[in-house]
């Protein structure tokens, strides 16, 4: 299934669950609301920067971000 729209570049190719950011969301609050760690949020959405360094400018209201990615078994 294709991701919802709009999204930014850098979303994990194994993403299977998306959530839309709202006005005023911070990365920390967004992660908490969706019951994921900030580290996973940053790993699955690389546009947010290493350790979330770019969250203040790259977490855009109305855009969808990955909140779960499946792990491919080898």
UniProtKB/TrEMBL annotation:
Q: Which GO terms describe its molecular function?
A: chitin binding
Which PROSITE patterns does UniProt cross-reference here?
LYSM
Keyword entries, A-Z: Chitin-binding, Virulence
Q: Does the record's keyword annotation contain Transmembrane helix?
A: no
| Residue ranges of every copy of the LysM domain listed in the record | 17-67
* Keyword Signal set for record: no
Q: Which PANTHER family match?
A: AM15 (PTHR34997), PEPTIDOGLYCAN-BINDING LYSIN DOMAIN (PTHR34997:SF1)
Similarity annotation? Belongs to the secreted LysM effector family.
Record's protein name: LysM domain-containing protein
Q: Which organism is it from?
A: Sporothrix schenckii (strain ATCC 58251 / de Perez 2211183)
């Amino acid at each position: 299934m294709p991701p919802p729209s709009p999204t930014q570049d850098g979303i994990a190719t194994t993403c299977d669950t998306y959530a839309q950011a709202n006005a005023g969301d911070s990365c920390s609050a967004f992660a908490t609301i969706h019951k994921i760690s900030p580290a996973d949020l940053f790993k699955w959405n690389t546009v947010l920067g290493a350790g979330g360094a770019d969250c203040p400018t790259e977490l855009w209201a109305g855009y969808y971000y990955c909140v779960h990615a499946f792990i491919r078994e080898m």
